[in-house]
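re: ur question from yesterday

yeah so i grabbed the chain u mentioned. its 1186 aa long if i counted rite. heres the sequnce exactly as i have it in my notes:
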Amino acid sequence: MGGGRCAPGRALILLLLALGLPRSQAESPAPPALCAPSASGTQPRPPDLQPNCTAPPVLWLCPALSPARGLWAHLLGPLCGDAAAAAKGAGGQVLLLSRLLVAQDPGGRFRRGRSRALCLEPGSRIPLPPASAWEGCHLRCRVRGGDGGRSLRAHPRGGELILAPPRATCLRSGHPLRLGLLCERCAEEGPTAVVRWSLGLGSSRSELEKLWLAEGGRRDPGSSRRRRNVNASPQFQKPTYQVSVPENRPAGTAVILLGAADPDEGEWGRLDYSMDALFDSRSNSFFAIDPQTGAVTTVEELDRETKSTHVFRVTATDHGVPRRTALATLTITVSDTNDHDPVFEQQEYKENMRENLEVGYEVLTVRATDGDASPNANILYRILNSNGSNRIFEIDPKSGVIRTNGLVDRETVESYQLIVEANDQGKDPGPRSTTATIHITVEDDNDNSPQFSEKRYVVQVPENVVSNTHILRVNATDRDKGSNALVHYSIMSGNTRGQFYIDAQTGNIDVVSQLDYEMNKEYTLRIRAQDGGRPPLSNISGLVTIQVLDVNDNAPIFVSTPFQSTVLENVPVGYSVIHIQAIDADSGENARLEYALVDTSSDFPFTINNNTGWIVVASELDREAVDFYNFGVEARDHGIPSMTSSASVSITVLDVNDNNPEFTQKEYAVRLNEDAAVGTSVLTVSAIDWDVNSVITYQITNGNTRNRFSITSQSGGGLITLALPLDYKLERQYLLTITASDGTRLDTAQVFVNVTDANTHRPVFQSSHYTVNINEDRPVGTTVVIISATDEDTGENARITYFMEDSIPQFKIDMDTGAVTTQMELDYEDQVSYTLAITARDNGIPQKSDTTYLEILVTDVNDNAPQFLRDGYQGSVYEDVPAFTSVLQVSATDRDSAMNGRVFYTFQGGDDGDGDFIIESTSGIVRTLRRLDRENVPLYELRAYAVDKGVPALRTPVDVHITVLDVNDNPPVFERDEFDIFIEENSPIGLVVARITASDPDEGTNAQIMYQIVEGNIPEVFQLDIFSGELTALMDLDYEAKSEYVIVVQATSAPLVSRATVHVRLLDKNDNVPVLKNFEIIFNNYITNKSSSFPTGVIGMIPAYDPDVSDNLTYSFEQGNELKLVLLNHSTGELRLSRALDNNRPLEAIMRVSVSALQGVQQRYLSVADAKENHAHTGRGIQKGQ
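ran it thru and got these structure tokens back, copy pasting raw so excuse formatting
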């Protein structure tokens, strides 16, 4: 502490002084040649330096000449405390601390406070303490363990170690080599000794003493602290390990080699490894760890799809006392291989679709899932059999939506079978695929009208066909299917008399009443074919021509029988006497007649014209010869077989007379019912001829329309009879002119025949089957249709009354008008059609009737909203599923039909979770539209609508609740990135100093958090509870040794982690007494005539310190400074020399200095010496504690 510089040659002396050697030794010219104990080992020690064990440590000094000049300082002694007790069974353990003390500059000073390094080249020798240090027994030692064990070997003679090639051993300040020496004792001494050897660079004896206290079990009696543990804890290289292993590898596959380091040697440094599954105990059955090597292997084949992540707590336990452990977390991720085929939701899909839907219509959506992970589950779809008729369909390769790309016509193709492939696009080892079969059935739309097999049907029917005879079958086909193709037939027109009936189902046409060729020779019926669709389609182009064939069913009928006539005897030959007239109701050849006289002789004076029927005079008459002729006449038709009729003819030959016959009445009137039978007597007229023997004949000479009447002479009068049936509709009155003739003269009279109507016709409907449509929403009282029948009669016979055969409460019919009206509300959904049997009955006697069938088709209106099958729908889905994953399916029905009953689904107007979901319009499948996040939205309350396609459209809402299931997609989050924790030093071991926690927005097992220290805990000062996050101190915390610890803690929610930095700051307590050791002040003073070198300023400070940073020291002299030779600043410890020492007198004084703080007082001795030599004074101050 003085003013001058040291001489270079005295560096070694200063080194020995620093080690506490006496000045005499320090001033010797050279160090000892062999290792020798320090002199302080034989001198009395101050009470505070007595060791804690029975044998005190001895400081041995050995010269070191290479690679640098200096000393090897050795402290040798037995282990104390727990370490020694644990070593008794092995013959005892000894601690050897060796430090190379090197003078590093020419001035001999050591540079304190900076790191140093020195390398010992191969061949360098390290001397050891002699045999006396080992209880007089010369030991043979060999090196084991550590890096030095591979580069050092023992000298054969013992007593030193030689550095062996091929490499150097480098020593660094503060980083000693830890080696083990196995030393064989003398035979009589016992077993092998184990020496724990710490080899490094040092600076002073005090440093070695501190190391001894730290490593050998001794303690400084001046300190109140005690080291509790000597067994060091093992440490893993990293706090967390993450490794990936492919699935499907065989059992025994190596996963990772875990290694922990333990600074202890021997049995205490041997580690056992174990691991336990965290979160899921199933992981224990898949992996095992070798307890000796730490190698982790698989126990059985892994399946990523069963469990993809395994988290273990790995423990390394040493065999020291007490046993120490190290913890690490191992996360094993099972990587995916493409070992799963895609799986369709259904192996076979069956879907119905209507024909004629728009192009682009979504038929259905197929979906396949793959248990693998991306990119082995990137599924693409395609239709394998897309040729031929299947070209009409296409599939979206990503979504699996099957759409139409053309119009579907059921009449062309009724069903389709598609084979859809799902390919996962996998790479390892390659893509896998699977197929599903799609059965699409095309439902029929009523888009085809019935078509008749012929444009016109012609049939010939003989007029004598019996009633209910089948004459023809019309056939119409409909290309549609089901009820749309079910054809009903009805007669639209041409059946005015109701003589024909058509079966509505079969199309068979029957004759239901007698045909009469003579009345109607041909019928043309218009047939309607109507299908059963809704609404129905019909075709009224069917024409049926029924040709009535004549049958020779009528014999000729003479207009009068017998025929009577007179002829004057003087008429010439060829004179036409009487016209024989017969009629035949048949036609053609069946009605062509031939006349012939029968029962006549060859000279008969009359002949008949075969074709005309006129009887003419064939020869002259002679009244006097024959005045009366009576013969027969025959009329024969040309039918096959022919039919004949005969009549009698009477001809009276008259004289010529001159009086005209006179009718008794000039006018006659009579009423005749039209249904009077042929041959009915109508009226008898009479005329009187005043001539003698006059014979009056009567003829209808005018007004006999259609030859309805005939007249014959009978009893002097003319009997008018009905020759042909009457028809009131054709003629209601006849005015007949009747002529009475005596052969020459004649008279006429008028006969008025009034024809009265008879109920001869039944009412006739125009069709046997009517079909009408009515909307179901029409109000009560709506007129559905007016049904009318016609009756060719008149009057009451033609007045028609209508009624329904069966009572159908929904309808009623007006008995007079035939108007059918509703009397109840109609509902298409309850009943789609009604068939009413309606009868028309006239009021004639007897009453006649006709029946027709009225089919009322109720037309659907959109009066029913869709109805969901459930009141609400619930589903769940994991938050990490890919877009377009199906969640659930809603389904609704609509009681309406056709477009009114077609339902589609939408979120429009409802709630789609802000676009997170979509709903397929046709199937009702709710799918995700994008990735979900449970932490943002754990529950979706959606609202979907089922909407029909009616006009206006009706819609029904339904609530859809979708719960988002959690996956572990959020790492734990600490409250802060950095924590500051303040604790007092000397807190009890095991005290919970803080609780460090993180939060995880996931839930359930995904939110379980594991805590661990990953950095800054070497040596193991703190322990963090793996589950609670409680931070516990494992050893004494000394502010003076270390005031702050910086550790990094990790929160793990496998496989996600977060980290935070924790600053553990110690609060100082006054737990240390001041530290002060004996020191010397040496100075020289030069006094000349010119100047003085006496130091007048501060020459130094008392070398005392207090480890407690908060303590303030107070300095004082206890004794020896009564003369005030040394001046002391009591608060700073600064020293000055009194001017009383500024003289030429040598001086040496010993003073006792006291340093005090709140916790204690330290007293040490100060030696002050003034050396004078040759009157040349050099001032030098040295302060060094002993």
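noticed a couple things. The chain has five helices and 92 strands. also The first helix runs from residue 11 to 18.
anyway ttyl
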